[in-house]
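User: My collaborator and I are trying to settle a disagreement about how two of our proteins should look. Neither of us wants to argue from intuition anymore, so we agreed to look at predicted structures for both before our next call. Could you fold the first one, then the second, and keep them clearly separated?

Assistant: That sounds like a sensible way to settle it. I'll keep them separate. The first protein:
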Amino acid sequence: MSTDKPIAIPSNQPITTAELLARYAAGERDFKGVSLAGADLQGTALGGIDLSRAELTGVDLSHATLQNANLSEANLTGANLTQANLFGAFLSGAKLSQTVLRSANLTEADLSGALLIQADLQDTLMHLTCLSEANLQGSDLTGAKMGGARLWKANLCEANLQGADLSDVNLCEANLCGANLEATDTSECILTGTTMPPGNVHD
């Protein structure tokens, strides 16, 4: 095994897709703060990679495998993560506004404090996912499977939750003002202090 130390990458330093994949294949995982804006990484296997605080606007990570990856505080605005596997990934504080996460697997992922304004989360798997204090204003969660998720103090104003599974979800102090809850399963939800769609606060 090589004893060479990983090359330190300055914050927001651009890196090519080829270089990233070559270094990842060689065993390197620390790519925090790199810039890969607009890169095509669809279908790549990058489990366990550290892309925290990385600049990833508009990147194509559709069908990519990113289980247990660290994407905390990364900028993924407008990225394509359709059907990506983000099981157990860390996305706390990440910027995901207008990002497409349709049919992605976010089971047990941490998205606490993440910015998901107008994100496409249709049919996304979010079992036991942490979305505490996340901003999901205007996001599309149609058909999302969120059983057991934590949405404490989350902003779901004007979100579309039609047909979503919210069973056993913690929605304490969440804001659902203007949200669409048509055909939504809210059985066993914790709703203490939750602002419901009409604007009234649940006891």
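The second protein, kept apart from the first:
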Amino acid sequence: MVPEPDAVSVNIDNDLDLDAAVIVALGCNDKGVWASCREALEAALARFRCEGIDVVARSSWWASQAWPDPTDPPFLNGVAIVRTAHDPHALMAALGRIEEAFGRRRTAANAPRTLDLDLIAYGREQGDCDGLILPHPRAADRLFVMGPLAEIAPGWEHPAGGLASVLASSATVGTDARPAH
């Protein structure tokens, strides 16, 4: 069961077509030069516009233990629905530039990170798009992704099936994820 989040100002345009939604997940468990992971994530969202990415809606921040190693620092995660003229590959490149600017270093898999930006969905696109798998192959199983998404767009339907609200309630990874206060 997903807990009721604190009130979040969603500000989704009435004309937003959730079938065309571009969804980006954000995560941090190493604050780097920032005062906190929350500050780093807010700064990352602010940086989106410089890369031609407009935030249409964003969730609250959700806290969870690190996965798969709960002895790593805990994570703060959230989701944003964005608009951009970038195609999926150009959007991934822009997200990579933002990660790099925030000190992201790709070392061991699942190592603590200053910023993790994942393209969860690009409209209804499905499959291998020249090496980019859409939608994100593991997002539907992760409460720290589906919970925040259900908070802002419970009626969003995963391209492979399932509403965000239902996927959040059946997620099997990060089941301790909860809205951070």
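Some points you might bring to the call about the second protein. The longest strand covers residues 75-84. Residues 1-10 have pLDDT under 50 and may be disordered.
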